[in-house]
Design brief:
alpha/beta, 27% helix, 560 residues, 15 helices, O16G_dom_2, globular, hydrolase, 5-stranded antiparallel sheet, GH
Length: 560
Amino acid sequence: MTAQHLGPDPGTAGRSSRDWWRQAVVYQVYPRSFADSDGDGIGDLPGVTSRLGHLADRGVDAVWLSPFYPSELADGGYDVADYRDVDPRLGTLDDFDAVVTEAHRLGLKVMVDIVPNHSSDQHVWFQEALRAGPGSAARERYVFREGKGAHGERPPTDWVSCFGGPAWTRLPDGWWYLHLFAPQQPDFNWDNPEVRAEFRTTLRFWSDRGVDGFRVDVAHGLAKDLAAPLRDIGTVESYQPDDLPEDGSHPFWDRDEVHEIFRDWRRVFNEYDPPRIAVAEAWVRNSRRTAYATPQELGQAFNFDFLRASLHAGELRSSIDTALADARAAGATATWVLSNHDVIRHASRHGLPDGCDEESWLLADGRRPLVEREFGLRRALAATLLMLALPGAGYVYQGEELGLPEVADLPREALRDPVWTRSRGRSKGRDGCRVPLPWRRGGSSYGFGSGGSWLPQPPGWGELSVEAQQGDPAAPLELYRAALRIRRGLLADEELEWVGGPEAVAGGLLHFRRSGGWECLTNLSDTARPLPDGEPLLFSAPLSGDRLPPWTTAWVRTAG
């Protein structure tokens, strides 16, 4: 994957502007798997600080920290016991301040996860609610209900947890509480003014410490129809965004009332100069996602259609057109993502046959079918260069710059994701994309730390490490570095112009022009395609003269 940089070094121009986020590259750090400073096998905030130079050197604009709050790890840190502190296993508030100080010194913005749909069952409010009993003000901060049946022995509704099983757990006093995820994650009642005030305080707490923005977990779940009697919906084990009603009438997903909450948050964000920004994790219909991203609300919403699209030119082009049109309609900016902490890494995903059942593949420990590792990586890098050429913000998950594959063969006894136990073994969960990073070729954890790693790293992990790839022009790491540096010098407005008609797309070619005299071509076929006249700036695989090889993306300067 030879990278070539022919233009001037763009430096760090534009990083500090008020709209830094509109076309930023944001690097997601999963702290427990990034770098371990004290040898206990768990990544921590001092470890993050020690490696920020790696990110600045690669040319990212911002760092997004997945949860680092006190947590019992019922859901990988997304069960938050205290929203305004740091898990002692990961450091202290002083350590967090050191992350922000060093990031800002290096020209990096900092975003943090905020988890407003639910807390940990160890949160002081939920513990108070358990002690206070039915009918108390403390219980009004969560969703408690009596059960059905002569003795309240059945759940209040047929709602199902996203992790499998009922979305209700019964207490010894006979009452039930709602948890759309794990039982250790009770849902807040956002009709309660105390809940709203508490999160305003939390947003200000982190903003006052220098945080530049927030990623909002389960943004579409906060508002719920809690009017009596609660509505059954017909038990379903899972849902897709397009299964949700278009009118916002679902009892707990994507209700219209959620936007009042985020308009309130925007008033908090605008108290700061520059205003804080946020991106919604909202698994909703395209037609309803734009509302989360307006300037009056969060500013951005993740576009998961692009992540889920197959590498077929027509499907990808449709996804791109829809995302750009929706962003324009919202007065927002498009977002692009290929991997994160919840999905199979795209270096493996794109090596699977079309139509492969990914869950079955994981349950078979990645052996049926076998991933074509080099083919998957080639396709993944072509998709990455396409993503980084698109107008808007790109979100990069830690380790994808190393081309890391999914660790599909983690032993069952090592799994930590509650999805594994809650589904009773029907779903292996998300641990395979959370295996700690390799920084060096050798050592007890390939440079992650001095004391092993909380999830087992596979043999050969060290040959994918930063040390192994540093300076190798054919390595994914150097391709990412070249792409991010060149990209920063090329970006202008947020428009693109497609080149070629339906026949080009039917032949597997995505070709568009960006202002400033450069073009991006992605060949998603098995046949080489002609390159336009111009100067090749970067390519995801070696070129063949004036031809673009199969499963390759190239950036070409054609004017100026």
